[in-house]
Amino acid sequence: MLVDLIFLFTAGLFGGVLNSVAGGGSFITFPALLFVGVNPISANATNTFASCAGYLSGAYAFRDDLYNHKRELPRLVLTSSAGGIAGAWLLLQTPESLFQEAIPWLLLFATVLFIAGGSINSYFRRWASRHRYASLLGSSLLLLVLLGVCVYGGFFNAGLGIVVLSYLALAGHTDINAMNGMKLLISSAVSIVAIVLFIHNGVIAWYQGMVVLIGTLVGGFVAAHLSRRLPQHHVRTLVILASCGVTGYFFVDVYAI
């Protein structure tokens, strides 16, 4: 048990550092919960719980940038909450065996998003700049895109931030600080409503989740002091290698005969 606690805390520590510097902490924390014996759906719900504090503190840090978009925020929060509830509900309706088979594909999707996220966001920023005057139909479609993004976030938390940034670029946002603030606010709304549903259904592994949560908070605090000295491209390379390795492991574990 002590070994499991040290392992989870260390995973949370590294996850918190990665989330603060380059993103991708869920590639460490979610598999760590699986490796100590938490069942897949509970591990996914617990990882959402452990990540939420970082989303909330990050959104608070960008409060001044968010204030400049205060008219847009209620719509974002309401849509995100609806999507988070739908995604969490879908997760809870998914049979354990089916979700276990889906894990490698979900990790692969999140890995591709992490690797290609910068290019995807750049493409959508260029596209948005050429279509700045969207029609009412375009605005409605954007809301549906956000809803779909948040359903994914409620179902599987990994990679949510990258998908949200792509949505914001598609919606025409260009201020990276405001985009990061809105990304964290949307992630917070998705996670909070999903966690409420997970608590109601008793699927969060509280003991393991609290250990990971403490680790992520410590890791985020440490990263705040180290971030200027850590080359981000090296950290991103490390995350990509780790995510590819973890994804490959789960493909072998789930599908190898």
Explain what this protein looks like in three dimensions.
The protein contains 11 helices and no strands. The chain is an all-alpha fold and 257 residues long. The protein is globular, with a radius of gyration of 18 Å.
Helicity level, as a percent range? Answer: over 70%
Q: Report the major sheet.
A: none
Please give the number of β-strands: 0
User: Helix count, per DSSP?
Assistant: 11
Q: Determine the N-to-C terminus distance.
A: 31 Å
Sequence stretches where pLDDT stays below 50 over 5 or more residues? 133-137
Rg, rounded, reads: 18 Å
Structural class of the secondary elements?
mainly alpha
- The 3D shape can be described as globular
Q: Average pLDDT across residues?
A: 82
Order of helices and strands: HHHHHHHHHHH
How many domains, as an integer?
A: 1
Strand content: under 5%
Features:
single chain, globular, 257 residues, mainly alpha
Secondary-structure blueprint of this entry?
Elements (H helix, E strand, L loop, with lengths): L1 H20 L4 H10 L4 H22 L1 H5 L5 H21 L2 H35 L5 H20 L4 H11 L5 H25 L5 H21 L5 H24 L2
Helix pairs in contact: 1-2, 1-10, 2-3, 3-9, 3-10, 5-7, 5-9, 6-8, 6-11, 7-8, 7-9, 8-9
How do you describe this structure in short?
By secondary structure, the chain is mainly alpha-helical. The chain contains eleven helices and no strands. The protein has one domain (2-255).
